[in-house]
Specification:
There is one protein chain. Helices cover 41% and strands 25% of the residues. By secondary structure, the chain is an alpha+beta fold. The protein folds into 2 domains: 40 residues, no CATH class; 64 residues, no CATH class. It has a 3-stranded antiparallel β-sheet with strand order 1-2-5. α1 packs across α2. The protein is elongated.
C-alpha cells in the first residue's frame, strides 16, 4: 500500500525532529519548487533518490513515406507537440529497493 502524504509528513517530522505542521510546510514548499522547475522545463534531482527530466518534443508536419513491407507510398500523419516528465531512480533508490528474491517470494 502506498504511503499517504500524512504518513510521509509524519515520517519526515520524526526523522528531522520537526513538528508535523513544519514537516507538512516543508513538503509543500518542496512540491512548489519542483513544480516550478518542471514548469521551466528544467532537470531536477531530489536528493540522491530520483531525477526528473522534462522532455519537450516539437510538432512534426505530415510527410510522405514508404510502407517497408509492401513498398507502397503512404502519407505519415502529423504529430502534435508533446511534453513528458520522466522520473529516473538514482543509485540510492536502486540500492534501497528490496532484493529480487524477497520480492518474488511474496
Amino acid at each position: 500500500m502506498p504511503m499517504t502524504q500524512t504518513q510521509l509528513a509524519d515520517a519526515v517530522a520524526e526523522k528531522a525532529g520537526l513538528s508535523r505542521a513544519d514537516a507538512k510546510k516543508a513538503l509543500g514548499a518542496l512540491e512548489e519548487v519542483i513544480l516550478e522547475e518542471i514548469g521551466n522545463a528544467e532537470k531536477i534531482k531530489i536528493g540522491g533518490v530520483v531525477q526528473l527530466d522534462v522532455r519537450v518534443r516539437p510538432a512534426t508536419q505530415a510527410r510522405p513515406g514508404r510502407n517497408p513491407a509492401t513498398g507502397e507510398e503512404i502519407m505519415i500523419s502529423a504529430k502534435p507537440a508533446s511534453v513528458a516528465v520522466k522520473a529516473r531512480p538514482l543509485a540510492k533508490a536502486k540500492n534501497a529497493a528490496p532484493p529480487l528474491s524477497r520480492v518474488q517470494g511474496r
